[in-house]
Write a structure and sequence with these properties.
The chain has three domains: 9-27 and 39-44 and 136-282, no CATH class; 46-130, SH3 type barrels (Roll), CATH 2.30.30.40; 284-407, no CATH class. It contains 15 helices and 15 strands. A hairpin with a 4-residue loop joins β7 and β8. The radius of gyration is 24 Å and the shape is globular. α13 packs across α14 (367-381). The chain has 407 residues and is an alpha+beta fold. The strands form six sheets. Strands 8-7-4-1-9 form a five-stranded antiparallel beta sheet. The chain has a two-stranded antiparallel sheet with strand order 2-3.
């Protein structure tokens, strides 16, 4: 489960190249100086508010009333523009067995059709877009680095070490925006290494013959990289071992990248790599369940949320935002092998109850704290069981935070 999430996270790395840019050329043309080391003018990522359908076949009506003509029906998850208009009155409807009152919301579909939808059938959410368009000059700026990476084979750990050396050489004297962008490309290369490491013959042979006693017990769940010559070589090249479902593979080591980055990257990139180091050292989930406590999951979710709030223009914002969203949705629902609610009686698991109370008490003003409090207040009314009202609220929160929408 968690490996699928990590792959999803890194799939954004290519997308990030469309959202990351530098103003170096623009500054040169206007006579401005490039930024000094430590400054960051990374292209900001902005969000717009849009309505998302949280029911199947949502009816878009010509007039804001139940007998209004249905213009069209849209599927679950459809995004619609907010026209900043709603009725001063509420209409009661029954959704998923629960009677709910809400005003009518005026929307416009992405195809330009305007109409009204019932407020209980939609949820407002942030949809992300870039503040600037990537120019050919922006892309070309890291072309030499990309070309150097493309020549490195993916079936040996030394390639990651050489890639890091290339990054150090390439970023020498470059502004932090370029260094950040190149770091994203370096991490993208690291994912290619990770994806192919499952098939490395040397790693397979090592896994079958050498790994007894290698793995550190809970709560670390990572390998002792000083185990022997092979693991020490991996460590020298910025790689660490991990294991899931009986498979051994490598991951890039954020701590290694952080040491190499020095003062060449922005404060945001430094903070991001530090959080990634935490994820690698004590990964939060695996084999369909949590490998940390629900309270630890809550703490990390809050940390990612705070990071995103502090660095909204971070080059890798789409990745860090998805970490937060995944954490919050998992905190609300749990995982298959670590459910938030007992399978037999649907009561809230004691571990998640403790996590909810911790978030509410310590981080009430965060998105995480507010979402958890909404769920927890409903559960208290329903005897700490997952009832109709809780399920409806949970589904809405998952619709809001479950997927990172990108225009």
């Amino acid at each position: 489960m968690y490996m699928k999430f990590k792959i999803l996270i890194t799939s954004f790395l290519f997308t990030l190249s469309l959202f990351s840019c530098t103003k170096e050329k623009e500054n040169q043309e206007s006579g401005q100086k490039s930024e000094e080391p430590g400054q960051s003018t990374t292209a900001a990522v902005k969000s717009v508010k849009m309505w998302k359908a949280v029911v199947d076949d949502l009816r878009v009506r010509e007039k804001p009333e139940l007998n209004g003509k249905v213009i069209l029906k849209v599927p679950y998850g459809t995004l619609m523009d907010d026209l900043n208009d709603k009725t001063p009155y509420e209409t009661e409807v029954e959704l998923q067995g629960v009677k709910t009152k809400a005003p009518w919301i005026k929307i416009r579909t992405r195809q330009g059709q305007e109409g009204w939808v019932h407020g209980a059938a939609v949820v407002i959410c942030d949809v992300y877009t870039s503040l600037y368009q990537t120019t050919p000059q922006d892309t070309m700026m890291v072309t030499p680095f990309n070309q150097a990476l493309s020549k490195l084979p993916l079936d040996q750990p030394e390639s990651m070490g050489k890639a890091v050396e290339e990054w150090v050489s390439f970023t020498n004297g470059k502004p932090v925006t370029v260094a950040d962008f190149a770091m994203i490309k370096l991490m993208e290369f690291g994912r290619k290494i990770t994806d192919t490491s499952w098939e490395w013959k040397q790693l397979k042979d090592f896994s079958e013959s050498e790994n007894k006693g290698l793995w550190v017990e809970k709560p670390e769940w990572h390998a002792n990289m000083d185990y022997n010559d092979y693991t020490r070589n991996l460590a020298r090249n910025g790689l660490v071992l991990d294991s899931e479902e009986g498979m051994t593979f490598v991951q890039t080591d954020p701590a290694f990248l952080l040491r190499k980055a020095g003062d060449r990257v922005s404060p945001a990139m430094k903070a991001y790599l530090a959080l990634e180091e935490d994820e690698v050292k004590k990964r939060v989930a695996g084999d369909g369940g949590l490998t940390v406590s629900a309270k630890e999951l809550a703490r990390r979710t809050v940390e990612w949320e705070k990071f995103n709030r502090q660095y909204p223009g971070f080059t890798g914002f789409l990745i860090s935002e998805n970490y937060f969203r995944w954490g919050l949705c998992t905190l609300i629902t749990g995982l298959d092998n670590t459910p938030a609610f007992n399978y037999d009686d649907q009561l809230l698991n004691d571990e998640f109850k403790e996590a909810y109370e911790w978030v509410i008490a310590n981080h009430p003003d965060t998105k995480t704290g507010k979402a958890v409090k909404e769920i927890y207040d409903i559960l208290k009314r329903e005897g700490m069981k997952s009832g109709p009202e809780h399920q409806k609220s949970s589904k809405k929160l998952q619709a809001t935070y479950g997927n990172l929408e990108i225009l």
